[in-house]
Amino acid sequence: MKVCKFGGTSVASAKQLKKVAAIVKEDPARQIVVVSAPGKRYEEDEKVTDMLIKLVQAALSGEDVSHPLEAVVERYAIIAGELGLGKEIVETIEADLEKRLQEDKQNAALFTDQLKASGEDNSAKLVAAYLTSIGLPASYINPKDAGLVVNGLPDRAQALPESYTNLSALNRRDTISVFPGFFGYTREGVLRTFERGGSDITGSILAASVKAEMYENFTDVDCVFAANPRSVENPVEIEQMTYREMRELSYAGFAVLHDEALMPAYKAAVPLCIKNTNNPKSSGTMIVAERDISNRPVIGISADSGFSTLYVSKYLMNREIGFGRKLLQILEDEQISYEHIPSGIDNLSVIIRSHQLSPEKEARIIERVKNELYADDVHIRSEFSMVVLVGEGMNNSTGLAARATDAIARTGANIEMINQGSSEVSLVFGVLKKDEKKILNELYKEFFEAAIVV
Amino acid sequence: MKVCKFGGTSVASAKQLKKVAAIVKEDPARQIVVVSAPGKRYEEDEKVTDMLIKLVQAALSGEDVSHPLEAVVERYAIIAGELGLGKEIVETIEADLEKRLQEDKQNAALFTDQLKASGEDNSAKLVAAYLTSIGLPASYINPKDAGLVVNGLPDRAQALPESYTNLSALNRRDTISVFPGFFGYTREGVLRTFERGGSDITGSILAASVKAEMYENFTDVDCVFAANPRSVENPVEIEQMTYREMRELSYAGFAVLHDEALMPAYKAAVPLCIKNTNNPKSSGTMIVAERDISNRPVIGISADSGFSTLYVSKYLMNREIGFGRKLLQILEDEQISYEHIPSGIDNLSVIIRSHQLSPEKEARIIERVKNELYADDVHIRSEFSMVVLVGEGMNNSTGLAARATDAIARTGANIEMINQGSSEVSLVFGVLKKDEKKILNELYKEFFEAAIVV
């Protein structure tokens, strides 16, 4: 049995849903289908989820909801019409939305969650109706009935262990199960959503629950590339990589899969495949437990900008037990997470994503580090990028760090930070944002171009 | 005016003290002399400080102290005899020790401090008597009278700001001031010692107080070498380096100067010179604020073994605000300080000096990280070494990291950790202890041998 998850662009229109149906039909192992809410049909189009957010805002502020409600229903109606489905499914969806609008608005977060989740929920109903209409018997599965149980507020929604037992029942059905992504229910029956993009998580939980032979994640790209095609011309396709490599690449913008989606499949040892709804013949990128690293020690290079560094120096800092802990406490008080902490003997730097900072926060942090930690010097600099070299071969090939630093030296750019040593599969360079692209290209040339020639 | 500090081997015997006198006599600017307790005269000899520790132990356990006391007095008596000094100085020293033995033993730490400090104190009295006897009018200066005020227990003794004002009076004396190193007095008049090796600190405080033109630290080596002569054959001598470079080199065993001794001189902009009592003609190593880096971007390479790494991995760790802080809190609860924290996306390693760990501590740490932080994996590995490349040029020359990693790659050894980015003057490599020496030699070859040929 395979679990297939189709993203927003894959269920955005009748044309796309016909591709989905063909994919499901082609392989009888595809018994569980997880769907997102309809996404964009073209660049300027609006995603159903964004339309639902507008509907929520209107409802919460007491405005007339008829226009935004109509817009959502219309999106489904267009798809249903083009697929030749009867009026019934559209009426079901409209009634569902009206019922959700009557829900308690006291807790705005929960009201928002249940209305946003309708995007995936109604998408699943529509897809089940369509598959059935073309002779592929399919049932919409309600996550509450199926037992996708999640934790309650104020935590971020995450599946509880019992979900896996409950959902394993899905491998004993004789019709195709169409399951809405993105949400579950607490033990008390309250709907809670995952983070945006969380349909990937639903698919992974289902794949783990039924011990699927594979979790296929259908998107609108053929595969994961070895570098961002926006920065590097025609990067090579990654045919196969390990879970760890995928995870380290996600560090800096390889946003093919939601961060939380890897773990359920990984723990259940279900291989994951990234495929393209628009080009299903392409073999895609397989994510597995182990791979042969002999001809490709580096699997990919990611880069991300928008980092700042908090530099702190204090004479004899290294002897002061508790210094680092107190510094991190100050950041925690500002609700700031950090990426790396390179350190010298009397100084350390904390690498932070800049979006977490503001002039007020920076001033408070500097003030506290000076006054509470008696630092000799404190300052914050921004406009840094992180370039991350990822590969299972990182740990065994001594020459890799040398090749990488040589490549960066060739660009004439300075290396502001090097971090290696905890992850066995990544090597991180901190560089000035202005140098990011040329460094990324030179590293790509060093580790991938020779391979292309062969 | 120059402040000269003479270490234990420089005041260990009459022969050595004659060298000291010649050095003091040679330059009339040498107006303040700071002395350690007599050290070893030959490899198997016992330092006076160690003899005093035995005396303390006997006194505290209520044993007969006559034998250990006699041993200490005898050491001074031999020196005094060979210098042709009268009996008086030896009687003064003996009376002083007997008086100290009568002090209150309730607080063992303070009793120990005041007895240990007699090593330096009586050394200063002896040196003052000797200099005077050969026509160099000199006075023993009592740190209490002179106002070297330090903080009280339970902190580590450190000079309070008023000391600098008090001690500045020493530049208005017309005899040579001989000042005992290693201790001061609290505002309440209680004797407190610095850390072992703390005579260097006393000298630096005095040099800063009198705004000396130079602080000369006389040891038994000609200079600071670019690498440890025990690991690298005939390393080059460092003629000049900056305070920051000296500080970063102290990371890993360049133990020429006590850690805390650099700051007073640095803050008062007093240049520091490391010189050899046994070879005063040698120009030594000058430690200054700035140097020309054009022909020597790397000034030295230090290496130290005895490091362990605590590895912790947890899925989505990087999103969890407070994870690093909680981990450091667990180490702090065990009174453990750390050196570096390299990190990947879902994992981090804490580099710790192994002597701080024990099987019990390791078990408690692993248990707590698993149970309190819900880590997926925790383990501790040992037998690591840190190799540190130090140089003011580190920040401006991109090629340095490439040259260093290339050199390590040539040895065939693996790089376990790279840390660069906070200090502008150092680049740290974590390697297996077994590879330390070959890496150190290859790095030395890369950065210094070409210079020797020129």
TrEMBL record, chains A, B:
Pfam families: AA_kinase, ACT_9
Catalysed conversion reaction: L-aspartate + ATP = 4-phospho-L-aspartate + ADP
EC number(s) reported in the record: 2.7.2.4
Molecular-function annotations in GO: aspartate kinase activity; ATP binding
Positions that bind ATP: 5-8, 219-220, 230
Gene3D superfamilies, A to Z: Acetylglutamate kinase-like, VC0802-like
The organism's place on the tree of life at top rank: Bacteria
Keyword Nucleotide-binding: yes
Keyword Nucleotide-binding among UniProt keywords: yes
NCBIfam families for the chain: asp_kinases (TIGR00657), PRK09034.1 (NF006540)
Family statement: Belongs to the aspartokinase family.
The protein's role, per its UniProt record: Catalyzes the phosphorylation of the beta-carboxyl group of aspartic acid with ATP to yield 4-phospho-L-aspartate, which is involved in the branched biosynthetic pathway leading to the biosynthesis of amino acids threonine, isoleucine and methionine.
Record's protein name: Aspartokinase
